[in-house]
Specification:
The protein is 39% helix and 13% strand. It is of the alpha/beta class and 389 residues long.
């Protein structure tokens, strides 16, 4: 299972694991893969805390940080989303763009599922009071600065478009490789022209923001289009057999995400894990209800509500997430009560491979199972090849 990416990063197996949970990132890194921390949900200050913890719990091993600097979002052409001299991004300028009818619609759905207002003693939201997160170039640049201040960070990853050229150059100056996710050949070629070192070919099966082309078609197309730039296969990969298929198509490793949601180290709530364990592939649907861009999410009463005829429609990024951030916090708190109607609204970005996520294993055991299945799959193919000679 070893490829040149293993030598490039000093890892044992080319399994790249995306997670917003630092415990998962550290566990995968310690097991021989490369954990990649999703920075989107963190303020720069919190990201510093998360990276410092990973540094202290991975014995000098490399890991990555994933951020989002969208190529397009509402207000970008008007200069919104850039940092000021203090590194702050003006969230209020975006909030003024959220229509009152959208706010009213959200309250209608919450009332239908008996979700109360936030209590006065509610804990601080992990997304902050603005709900802006890192959905803008300015927010992404703040994450990049934190990531590059940690010597163990050896990979910087961007989604939703090519990272700015100066960010790629800055990463290279720090000895950090840059990867980017893409769901189309022309986008992959644009990433390569921008200086990106590794292309992540993400099929439509993937969780989160994803395109429309399946992995079996997309991976070899991108491999051919960007050669000799290395490619990671992504989308529908949660086992060694699936990793072997991706590598047979020309990928030099795999980018994984959904499979880590239900591992023992994951910080997902028991209610979310229970839903994921019960879900089938068709329960992972593409919806704009999360961010305004198509993203594959667990089908819930929330995703279905945004498809209703009376719904005013979703908003462009970053307005959709900002409009719904507090609602998601309220849903999470209300769903803690057993039997609460609010549980019907609970969801999470997840890929179609959710149908295979039926057990709670440790992250290390998932890595070891990947290796065992990869060996079995390749040995079967070798036997078939030998028999045909």
């Amino acid at each position: 299972m070893r490829t040149e990416l293993c030598d490039l990063f000093g890892i044992d197996v080319p399994i790249f694991a995306f997670s917003h949970c630092r415990d998962v990132v550290a566990a995968v890194t310690n097991a021989g893969g490369l954990g990649v921390l999703g920075a989107l949900a963190f303020s720069p200050e919190q990201l510093e805390i998360e990276c410092k913890w990973i540094d202290e719990n991975t014995d000098g091993k490399p890991y990555g940080v994933d951020t989002v600097m969208p190529m397009s979002y509402a207000g970008k052409d008007e200069g919104l989303g850039q940092r000021d001299e203090a590194g702050e991004v003006d969230a209020d300028a975006f909030r003024k763009l959220i229509p009152a009818e959208t706010t009213a619609w959200i309250e209608t759905v919450l009332e239908e599922y008996e979700v109360p207002p936030l209590p006065a003693d509610a804990p601080d939201s992990p997304v902050g009071s603005s709900g802006l997160l890192g959905w803008t170039e300015g927010g992404g640049r703040n994450h990049v600065e934190v990531a590059l201040s940690h010597p163990q960070v050896k990979l910087l990853v961007n989604a939703l478009g090519p990272p700015p050229k100066d960010v790629v150059d800055l990463a290279h100056e720090h000895g950090v490789k840059v990867a980017a996710l893409t769901g189309a050949v022309e986008h992959a070629q644009r990433q390569k022209q921008q200086g990106v070192d590794i292309i992540i070919a993400q099929g439509t099966e993937a969780g989160g923001h994803t395109g429309e082309i399946g992995s079996m078609v997309l991976i070899p197309d991108i491999v051919d289009a960007v050669a000799p730039t290395p490619v990671l296969g992504a989308g529908g990969i949660a086992s060694g057999r699936q990793a072997a298929a991706a590598m047979a198509l020309g990928a030099q490793g795999v980018w994984t995400g959904s499979v880590w949601l239900t591992v023992r180290e994951s910080d997902m709530t028991p209610a979310i894990k229970e839903k994921l364990h019960a879900a089938r592939s068709k329960d992972a649907v593409r919806s704009r209800s999360l961010s305004g861009k198509p993203a594959r999410l667990l089908r819930t009463a929330w995703t279905e509500a945004w498809e209703r005829e009376e719904c005013p429609g979703t908003l462009p990024m970053p307005l959709q997430f900002m409009a719904t951030a507090e609602a998601q916090q309220r849903i999470g708190l209300a769903a803690r009560k057993e039997g609460a109607k609010a549980r019907d609204l609970l969801g999470i970005p997840v890929g179609q491979v959710v149908s295979r996520m039926n057990d709670e294993m440790s992250s290390a055991d998932v890595i070891y199972q990947f290796i065992d299945e990869f060996v079995d799959a390749t040995e079967r193919l070798k036997k078939s090849l030998d028999a045909a000679r």
